[in-house]
Write a structure and sequence with these properties.
This protein is an alpha/beta fold. α13 (384-388) links the parallel β21 and β22. It binds 2-deoxy-2-amino glucitol-6-phosphate.
Length: 610
């Protein structure tokens, strides 16, 4: 998953491209590069590392008189993150330059075909086949647009590709299949980019390309064509829906800590205008258009990945308990290849912060032919999943910059509570009480945040450990999973998570004095069961940190090495609050270890390749 930007206009083209790349770094940040036409030839500069490293390379280069430029920030799929493998890639005589996001699945056979024709490859990437293939067709047709089209037709896999050439230096060529790509329409210039944040600085309107579309973009015009039916495509530009992605960290050292501390506001924004306590009402406007279908659904399959998958697991507990509708949560990457029956009243619910996760998009594409009801819980406005699903609910959590998702999880679970209550309105005895409790939850979240210094002190004392266990039962089990995912992502510590009752069936073998456990035990209904699991751990010399309530703490005094006392809430709402505890705990361990918390190694914020 990478970020792509292109600019064609009549002023310094490199600056808006660099600005777009900075906004796209959440997509990948292991290397970056630009190519630009300086009036006589195309030059390119690329560098391993962040966009900032690339900008350093450009300091002494005259970029003022450049009118066309393309750029790329990378998350390596094929070939290590080096300067050589950084994009753009080019043909032998450096007249055709290409940047690409996605995976070209038939790159090996194309490479062999081209090498057999004397083409020489310099990188280990799949992408490098593209400029050579365009060159191959250009030698035949002497028409760069035709050569571009023929080359694209030969590719299979997922791609967003942008190309510029010395043959027609005032044009940018673009093609999309699965990976996101859009045209940014400006007054005196036009752009292309992976999403709205790539073009927002120099364009006023945006046109999202659909699969199998190619576009030719010039400074004051553009044309789109469908590769399959070869017909011209006309689509009205839309307003650029973008929340100020360039949010600052404020006084926080990292975006992650800032985003954790936004929990009260995040919960507030997720319920704002959606619950009316005085009339016991829940209004989810984004679902109005499918209200009839919703009344008849008899099965929900939640498809998502990573933290959104874990939010889905909480949703399963909530919807089954409060709405009595059977729910399955499936990893989107597995769902795509599973063979299973669907009934006409099965609904597919996709959960995604970015709305651009390729696995989740592929899961939705799989069920398109069946015409099932598809719903989305998405944070990014205008994203692919928000446009693909029939109806949905926006998280309104604002831009999430840190790669490790925190406030999006808080918002997703809050919305799943609303959805479960709304679907179960006439069925659940808990409806009224939970609605009232939810309305006051932002205040309770503030109390959790006030525990930050205490959580920090405990986290620092455990930060030297190389292994960690998280346990929880019922609604707390997914929170244990989320805690272990967060700790893995940002501190690179080996972390496991299990339902408390599962420990004795194997994982308990891991436990000793060097393998501490964080146990979530605030559930008024299950704390005693979790207490017996903590006993089992203590009996093996394991250290334990127990998250529980004032009321329950007496049960853990003798078996907990450390206690984190949180306010009491209903089981159904506890994941929203306890997630903040495990997010803070993971953050302080990673901070103590001096990790690059907002941009952890090997990861990216939006995973746009399968
Ligand atoms: C979570 O911290 C990770 N960034 C990752 O697991 C993420 O949740 C996953 O890639 C899904 O992303 P999405 O919510 O944007 O679809």
């Amino acid at each position: 998953m990478c970020g792509i930007v292109g600019f064609v206009g009549d002023k310094n083209a490199v600056e808006p491209v660099l600005c777009g790349l900075r906004n796209l770094e959440y997509r990948g940040y292991d290397s970056a590069g630009v190519a630009f036409y300086d009036g006589s030839k195309i030059r390119n500069v690329k560098q391993a590392g962040r966009v900032a490293a690339l900008e350093n390379e450009l300091v002494d280069i005259d970029i003022i008189n450049t009118k066309t430029a393309i750029g790329h920030t990378r998350w390596a799929t094929h070939g290590t993150p080096t300067k050589l493998n950084a994009h753009p890639h080019y043909n032998k005589d450096k007249t055709i330059f290409v940047v690409h996001n996605g995976i070209i699945e038939n790159h090996q056979e194309l490479r062999s075909m081209l090498e057999a024709k004397g083409y020489h490859f310099v990188s280990h990437t799949d992408t490098e086949v593209v400029p050579h293939l365009i060159d191959f067709y250009y030698q035949k047709t002497k028409d760069i647009e035709q050569a571009f089209t023929s080359a694209i037709n030969d590719l299979s896999g997922a791609y967003a590709i942008v190309m510029m050439s010395e043959i027609e230096p005032n044009k940018i060529f673009a093609a999309k299949l699965s990976s996101p790509l859009a045209i940014g329409v400006g007054r005196k210039n036009n752009m292309v980019g992976s999403d709205a944040s790539a073009v927002a600085d120099a364009a006023e309107k945006i046109i999202y390309l659909e699969d199998y579309e190619i576009a030719v973009v010039e400074k004051n015009k553009y044309k789109i064509r469908n590769l399959k039916n070869k017909k011209a495509v006309s689509r009205d530009p839309e307003d650029i829906l973008i929340e100020d992605a360039r949010a600052s960290k404020g006084s926080f050292e990292h975006f992650m800590l800032k985003e954790i501390h936004e929990a009260p506001k995040t919960i507030q924004n997720a319920i704002l205008g959606r619950i009316k306590i005085e009339t016991n009402e829940i209004k989810l406007g984004g679902l109005d258009s499918v209200a009839n279908q919703l009344r008849n659904i008899d099965r929900i399959i939640i498809v998502s990945c990573g933290t959104s998958y874990i939010a889905g697991l909480v949703g399963e507990y909530l919807i089954e308990e409060l709405a009595e509708i059977p729910v399955e949560v499936q990893l989107a990457s597995e769902f795509k290849y599973r063979k299973e029956p669907y009934g006409p009243n099965t609904a597919i619910l996709a959960i995604s912060q970015s709305g651009e996760t390729a696995d989740t998009i592929a899961a939705l594409k799989k069920v398109e032919p069946q015409g099932l009801l598809t719903l989305g819980i998405v944070n990014s406005p205008g994203s692919t999943i928000s446009r693909m699903t029939k109806a949905g609910i926006y998280c309104h959590a604002g831009p999430e910059i840190s790669v490790a998702s925190t406030k999006a999880f808080t918002a997703q679970v809050t919305i799943l509570v609303l959805l479960a209550l709304s679907l179960g309105k006439n069925r659940s005895k808990l409806y009224k009480d939970l609605l009232v409790e939810l309305a006051s939850l932002p205040k309770t979240a503030e109390k959790i945040l006030s525990l930050s210094p205490a959580i920090k002190e405990i986290a620092i004392r455990y930060s030297h450990h190389r292994d960690f266990m998280f346990i929880g039962r019922g609604y707390e089990y997914p929170v244990a999973l989320e805690g272990s995912l967060k700790l893995k992502e940002i501190s690179y510590i080996h972390a496991e998570a299990y339902a408390g009752g599962e420990l004795k069936h194997g994982p308990l073998a891991l436990i000793d004095e060097n393998f501490p456990t964080l146990a979530l035990a605030s559930s008024p209904t299950l704390f005693d069961k979790t207490a017996s699991n903590i006993q089992e751990i203590k009996a093996r010399g394991g250290k334990t940190i127990v998250v529980t309530t004032k009321k329950q703490q007496k049960h853990f005094k003798t078996i907990a090495d450390d206690l984190i006392i949180i306010p009491e809430v209903s089981d159904q709402l506890s994941p929203i609050l306890e997630a903040i505890v495990v997010q803070l705990f993971s953050y302080f361990i990673a901070a103590e270890k001096g990790c690059d918390i907002d941009k952890p190694r090997n990861l990216a914020k939006s995973v746009t390749v399968e």
